[in-house]
User: Fold this.
Amino acid sequence: MGLDGAVERVHGTAIALLVDGVARAALIRGPSGAGKSDLALRCLATGPTSFLPGPVRLVADDQVVVTRRGDIPMASAPESIAGLIEVRGLGVVRFDPLAEARLVMLVDLVAAGMIERLPDPVPSDTLLGVTMPVLRLHAFDCSSAVKLLIGLAGVEL
Assistant:
């Protein structure tokens, strides 16, 4: 519990899937221009389906504030950019943001050839002392948004 209240600002984008009243967030990480905002935008355009129980909401784009509360990392946006997402070719667009969400999964954007078909064990990483599963995706694959959301829906809390 020594890290309770710890805060870290991360370069990335966070989206959340609402499941049974709980906002489950994924933190999308990658270098500038890797497609973090683009992947998040495609997730935001995905409505509830037979395998996605709830709507997808924007938490933060470009900068994500992660705060540890007990053993739970929470994601939020810095106040100055809350609700804003960069849409390449259009500019900065405003969305109705989710103020915060429970961070349950990390998504690392990688080259297509670096993705294992059946990773065993599932990769993981630690943020603020909390270990979470890592999903590796190529941002611009057509199915990446759906893969991210299926993973987010299935994460054990």
About this structure: The chain has one domain: 7-154. The chain has a mean pLDDT of 93. The CA atoms of residues 82 and 106 lie 20 Å apart.
